[in-house]
């Protein structure tokens, strides 16, 4: 599998570290809504198909990337820097909601 | 020259004689021979014993699909089992032995298994050995009894125990076009793609490029095919954009056109060139792949089809034309298609007598009649071979009239003498790589074969791979595939190349099996017969995937290259379904066996990555016993002569508490945290506050994970308003870095902070003890180190022996202590200056054991207690949880379960029987040696405390604090250690911290 | 000033090694620049930082991922978004780098923390391809440019400083281990250490 880092170009997956479900959104830091925190910390989407994921180019430029990957075919349809704001290219999930 | 060797022709060099041994007998062959062709030329027909029944087996094929002739190659003490003799190139000094025979190949005692054929039928092991123990001769207990005997009797070669000292390497390659297979189609594709300037890799698993051109006997545009091929290879060799890889098996097709290949660099040589690997593992990332992998001829299934002397027709042709060896003198042919007629002619041209051609078809083409006449064979159509005769060597065949509807008839049977039977059951395209890439094969009823579907996204096929069995058409497809792969506009090829003789009709009769009395093998390597397949059906197996696992059909090292389609056909017939409805299994990597060495490559021996501190060599020179901490190497003890480990660390810790000691702390993770929001990030990441920390001071910090459990701890130093140096534990340096990077990149991208790993920038030496300050004062210049200039947690800059240093007064040992940081390149210099300054005071260097001892005495936590399950309160660090600000983990740390009673809390333990304690031992209220139970917790770290003169430990114990002063017991049944302990505070020594505050 | 001690000292064996009968495939050397610093720009400040690098070193950088340049005295290349590695044959670069203002970004001294190893010669690409899953061809990896990659746990920043010359910056603690691997990988083509 190759991931095309926006900075480094296509690199082998062995240079990347998976950093989890990219659909999670962190509650406001001062929030005391335990259900929201619980969803953020523990709930993960596990779709068969397109999935928003965070990968770090750990063995390269170390940027975190927002990747849309098909979990069935490993096909990657989009990659952008995670720090660049904007909705992921694929459906976002409300915290606490089960898929 | 041997009688079987033709005087000329083929790839072998008759002027170069090569000596080798097989089963201890000396043989000779020629340069270019495989072990198979060389032994064949020497008249050897028996190559091995079969897997289950120990039947004698000879060569079936001439290539990578060989199921029978597996040998073990010995290189010194290193055994490499299960190598097809067809893939072993001979060299002087080659030593090969046959397998699965005892005591010898010719006389094998287990051949009696043949008589017990019914007993060992499909599912024998499952039926006999699985399930409950119901009697003496059934079930799992019986298996345990029989396993050793069965494992020896049934099986392939024996793996060796000697370490493999050969060199293996990995290589990464990138290309626009990877062409797999160098037959006419592959060569045409490579040439066309290369002409456009594309970067091309051409991989061929054989030692010689050309594929079928090397043995087809065809001419291409008036030139012998082999010469045509070598001309193209010569052209390609001169092009800078082409890489030619022979002896290279492309065995895996992974995502994004990443392919794995293994190049056998040195196996064909007596010894590798200096520095050259034995095998080179290639990871090839290709823009496009041209699959020109050809096709395998498949066997016919009939009784006795495994007798030595029965050989695939194309393999016989290959031995005759490519190696100049005749597999027999008097040859018979058994076929369901036209291609075997060409093989018959080839053998006849090479000097063999073709006695008979038996064809299951009642009617055959005029060309076939002509070819049969040409080789002088008696042509018997509408017949089938129903048995073979002979012992360890074919002497003749039995045939009978045959129709597709009725099968073989019992009347009209006759015998024919022959020492070699060529068989051909049609051809199966080698679609393994396409299947690995996800392509679902399609059944072609005309060709009676699975073909690849439309070209995939990353690959395009050409030639026999596509089911195109005409060489002229294959070349045209190769040309087209080369253009597609190189992203070129398609053009007409114009006229097809002129290939002589013209292609025959590729369509076989749909006949896979001749049913008659006797064992008919489908999978030769795993000894699976057609009756086994039917038995599986009778027992209710309908899925091809289940059939495969139950009978083990296609699961041997050859992965069913020849047996796959016949097995399916027999299953389909039993099910009464057409073949495509039964389906085929998906091929998995590797296409052919790969040496484990090639996969491990450089990742073994002393080539593993090691991290060394700047003072590493000093430690070694000063009798340190090193041990690894992750990738780092750190001193455990500096052992004096005759000292035990315990004596050494007790001495080191005692001297440190009495005068002074010094320890290398360079491995601590160090992260430069820089930028206007650096303090803000630290406030969010640590459970305590850092924004209030003045410049020139350090603070101990605690980090939680998002779930509220403790993550890591360490001190962070403020070097400037916007400039912090964070230290982490050695083990968590990478994790903490990644954790902070994640938050900066994903959660708080608006914070202006840069993180840089500076672990390697600094050498660190911690010097502690009552005399530490005096020692420091004796060697530091440019700054004072007294209480005023350097208070607890203060930082000063100065020089030691001319090298700039940064000193922070902090303590892990509980003594008055200082961490002295210098540039890593000055590390030894500063360290030696400190050692010298400490000499008059009797300062000692100490290792991790003494460090651990002193931290246990002080009750400091490390990774053993921060085990991913403990909360800050469990470790009595609740005072570090700020209530003034949110931080990572603050929202989750007060969850019910994390504040409930009964949690494991950090305590100290004192051994009451004056015997050592050890990590992992359980704590119980009452000892029950026979039935250990009732664990209250466990020991995390233990030592002999020189300060207390006792064996002590840290432990995590339920409601630990409430148990202070109570007795309990250690229960450690694995180490047979039971005994009384007292539960105490984890602050064993100097709980008020008077010593470190001075 | 005290001289920096090389982490390679114990394994550095000048001379020809491996299979050099047909010539030396690669030459391995330690560059030991006086200074190695990291310059990192805040988002949006990259152009100003590049201008500061130019004013400091006289080197002109193209605006693009991995862009780099070199002179007798300095080398510089981008290795991550907004981040550059800058070397100077002289010591003390970090204090001279005041041209990088806090508004622009940060400067981090790595003079001790990274070890610079040069791989030069006709088989450089071949040898490095054994260690890194990166395309070292001139087309994919143009002269002057830089990359970040890793060999197992060993991070490496690499600049192509010539048609067949690469400068590798690895963590100091890994340098000895990496050097041994590099020598091992070079055995086959023959190598000279100098
Ligand atoms: Zn990257």
In short:
The complex is a heterotrimer of chains A (99), B (998) and C (194). Chain A has 99 residues and is mainly beta.
Would you mind describing this structure in some detail?
The complex is a heterotrimer of chains A (99), B (998) and C (194). With 99 residues, chain A is mainly beta. Chain A has one domain: Folate-binding fold, CATH 3.30.2270. Chain A has one helix spanning 34-42, and strands at residues 2-5, 9-12, 17-21, 50-56, 64-70, 76-81. In chain A, the strands form 2 sheets. Chain A has a 4-stranded antiparallel sheet, with no helix packed on it. A two-stranded antiparallel ribbon of chain A has the order 1-2. Chain A is globular and about 40 Å long. Residues 87-99 of chain A have low confidence and may be disordered. Chain B has 24 helices and 52 strands. In chain B, the strands form 13 sheets. In chain B, strands 8, 9, 12, 13, 14, 15 and 29 form a 7-stranded mixed sheet that branches. In chain B, a hairpin with a 6-residue loop joins strand 3 and strand 4. In chain B, helix 4 packs parallel to helix 5 and helix 6 (313-322) packs parallel to helix 7. The radius of gyration of chain B is 38 Å and the shape is elongated. Chain C folds into 2 domains: 23-31 and 113-193, Gyrase A, domain 2; 35-109, 2-Layer Sandwich (Alpha-Beta Plaits). Chain C has 4 helices and 12 strands. Chain C starts with 14 loop residues before the first strand and ends with a strand. Bound molecules: zinc ion. Residues 5, 7-8, 57, 60-61, 63 of chain A line the site of zinc ion. Chain B: GO terms for molecular function: sarcosine oxidase activity. Chain B: It comes from Aminobacter aganoensis.
Number of helical regions of chain C: 4
Shape of chain C: globular
What is the string of helix and strand elements of chain C? EEEHEEEHEEHEEEHE
Estimated radius of gyration of chain B = 38 Å
Ligands (ions, cofactors included): zinc ion
Please name the fourth-level CATH homologous superfamily of the largest domain in chain C: Probable tRNA modification gtpase trme, domain 1
The strand count of chain B comes to 52
InterPro entries (chain B): 2Fe-2S-bd_N (IPR042204), FAD/NAD-bd_sf (IPR036188), FAD/NAD-binding_dom (IPR023753), GcvT/YgfZ/DmdA (IPR028896), GcvT/YgfZ_C (IPR029043), GcvT_C (IPR013977), GCVT_N (IPR006222), Sarcosine_oxidase_asu (IPR006277)
Domain Aminomethyltransferase C-terminal (chain B): 906-990
GO molecular function (chain B): sarcosine oxidase activity
EC number (chain B): 1.5.3.1
